[in-house]
């Protein structure tokens, strides 16, 4: 409506420049419009909300803001990551918090133990470590799976439930520390198959005992 009243609007040069600027504006706004539309879609699909612990591609952390254009995530290393909403909508989203308050989220870790150690003892030591870990729920109770019988070792997977997904990094760290303490105090080595295959009769690689045997 305004175009005919602009000075020089009738000249071919002015019209050409106007068309060029219009094309640039249209192309430049494409990504912005896509992000806005994606933001609306994400809102109505309820994939996550502010405060949830999520993982988008390789980025994991707590959602601190969800705007029209970007979603901001605070990682466990206190780094703020801004992800365009169009990228979020086209990515695989893992939400650790959506079911945490009702049923909790299951965390798991894997260790390998040689065939010379009774599997019942390994399960007992793993469950003992889980019991000592803070923020691990008693119900549903932690459990252990034997996931593989390889050439040199048995692979065990310890599964625990927590309702504090925003503390996942701390829970994993404490759980691994308690597993190490539990097995070291019991005199059981945690080793890789390569190390197992090249044993030369030297002393076991276990720190000196600092207390009673765990689980004994």
Q: Per CATH, which architecture of the largest domain?
A: Roll
- Shape, principal axes of CA atoms: elongated
**What does the radius of gyration come to?**
28 Å
Q: What is the number of helices?
A: 5
| H/E topology pattern | HEEEEHEEHEEHH
* Secondary structural class: alpha+beta
Q: Which blocks of ≥5 consecutive residues have pLDDT under 50?
A: none
Which CATH top level class of the largest domain fits?
Mainly Beta
Q: Please list the strands of the largest sheet in the order they lie side by side.
A: 4-3-2-1-5
Mean pLDDT over all positions: 81
The number of distinct structural domains comes to 2
- Helix proportion: 25-40%
Give the end-to-end Cα distance, rounded to a whole number of Å.
87 Å
Number of strands: 8
Largest sheet: 5 strands, antiparallel
Q: Briefly note the CATH topology name of the largest domain.
A: SH3 type barrels
């Amino acid at each position: 409506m305004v175009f005919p009243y602009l000075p020089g609007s009738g000249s071919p040069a002015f019209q050409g420049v106007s068309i060029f600027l219009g094309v640039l504006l249209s192309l430049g706004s494409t990504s912005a419009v896509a992000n806005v539309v994606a933001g609306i879609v994400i809102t109505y699909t309820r994939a996550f909300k502010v405060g949830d612990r999520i993982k988008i591609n390789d980025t994991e952390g707590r959602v601190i803001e969800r705007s029209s254009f970007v979603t901001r995530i605070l990682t466990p290393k206190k780094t703020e990551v801004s992800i365009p909403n169009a990228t979020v909508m086209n990515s695989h989203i893992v939400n650790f918090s959506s079911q945490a308050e009702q049923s909790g989220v299951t965390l798991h870790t894997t260790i390998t133990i040689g065939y010379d150690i009774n599997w019942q003892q390994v399960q007992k030591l793993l469950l003992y470590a889980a019991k000592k870990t803070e923020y691990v729920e008693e119900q549903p109770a932690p459990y252990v799976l034997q996931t593989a019988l390889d050439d040199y070792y048995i692979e065990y997977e310890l599964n625990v439930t927590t309702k504090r997904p925003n503390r996942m990094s701390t829970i994993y760290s404490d759980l691994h520390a308690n597993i190490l303490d539990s097995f070291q105090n019991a005199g059981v080595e945690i080793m890789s198959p390569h190390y197992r295959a090249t044993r030369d009769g030297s002393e076991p690689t276990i720190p000196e005992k600092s207390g009673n045997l765990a689980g004994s």
